[in-house]
Amino acid sequence: MSHNTNTSIKSAPIAESGPWAAAGEHPNAVTNR
Hints:
mainly alpha, 4 helices
């Protein structure tokens, strides 16, 4: 599951995903922040 999420993040533009995408963090981690 992590691999699928990671692929989606890499496919999405960094501007929309955010700097955490470049860092390779999970979107849930950012939501918790």
